[in-house]
Specification:
Layout (H helix, E strand, L loop, with lengths): L2 E7 L4 H13 L4 E5 L3 E2 L2 E2 L8 E3 L9 E5 L6 E2 L8 E8 L6 E9 L9 H13 L2 E7 L14 H13 L1 E3 L8 E2 L4 E2 L2 E6 L6 E6 L11 E5 L13 H4 L1 H15 L3 H9 L2
Parallel strand pairs: 1-2, 9-10
Antiparallel strand pairs: 1-16, 2-6, 3-4, 5-6, 7-8, 8-9, 10-14, 11-14, 12-13, 15-16
């Protein structure tokens, strides 16, 4: 059986927190990746009804990312890597000799920072450096057609370029809006993972049920029975190079960047 996840931005709401707890209990969720939790007096509140343990940066006055763990075993908090906008834990998945440690992260990308934020890019490089697999659930506040949004904006281009060169994969499926209001719909909530984990992210879906937030709940599983890919090979087709290169061409035309050298570099990645 896969580990069951929910990913949710609850917009600092008390009612949204209570409703999320209800969904966690009903859907037998084991790990919740939460952005913009309800915070009172500097602490994350409103998740106690779901049971389990909540992890977030202990020194942050107004944390905007946390992880609730209920049922998953062998969880180790990576407190030294947590920030106001980043919550990180570590656990082991797989069976027997294929067991590997995985860092699980909930992240919020502030609109007034680069995309991804420096702390997340540092986390990705850290995990790569020590051979630690990584799964990230985030509110990216970034728009690109690559992950199903209808628009391409500068933050989206910035994020796509980083993901393409860093080796992280986008686990989103389809183009159902993750952010939905009567005035605007977009796909800005992303699930990212190391290449070796991509085949293990199963049943990824956006719930169309009410969440009491402008962000819809996202459900997926992490299948521990699928054998992990043992090398770091990236499938170029999975990254849709042609779409990325076309976007890079447009950027090059605007800024007079030599496209041939960029293309040759990307083809070697």
């Amino acid at each position: 059986m896969p580990l069951e996840f929910i990913q949710a931005n609850i917009q600092h709401g008390k009612a949204q927190s209570a409703f999320l707890c209800k969904r966690i209990i009903e859907s037998q969720i084991e790990i919740a990746l939460i952005q913009e939790p309800w915070v009172y007096h500097g602490k994350v509140r409103g998740l106690g009804r779901a049971g389990g343990t909540v992890y977030y940066c202990p020194s942050a006055e107004e944390p905007r990312a946390c992880i609730l763990v209920k049922g998953a075993k062998g969880v180790f908090p990576m407190s030294g890597l947590c920030t106001r906008d980043l919550a990180v834990i570590k656990l082991a998945i797989g069976k027997g000799n294929t067991k590997r440690e995985v860092a699980i992260c909930s992240a919020y990308f502030p609109r007034n920072t680069e995309s991804p934020p420096r702390e997340l890019s540092d986390l990705i490089r850290y995990c790569e450096g020590i051979g630690l697999l990584l799964l990230v659930g985030c509110d990216s506040n970034s728009h690109h057609t690559m992950w199903g949004d209808k628009e391409v904006k500068p933050r989206g281009r910035m994020l796509l370029k980083f993901l393409t060169l860093s080796g992280m994969q986008i686990a989103n499926r389809g183009s159902v809006p993750t952010y939905f209001t009567p005035e605007r719909q977009s796909v800005i909530d992303l699930t990212l993972c190391s290449t070796e984990l991509l085949s293990q992210v199963v049943s990824w879906r956006v719930s169309l049920e009410v969440s009491l937030s402008d962000h819809r709940h996202i459900f997926f599983g992490l299948d521990e029975s699928i054998q992990l890919i043992e090398n770091g090979y990236r499938n170029p087709r999975a990254t849709q190079w042609d779409l990325y290169l076309e976007d890079l061409k447009k950027e090059a035309n605007r800024n007079s960047i030599p496209i041939l050298k960029a293309r040759q570099t990307l083809r070697k990645c």
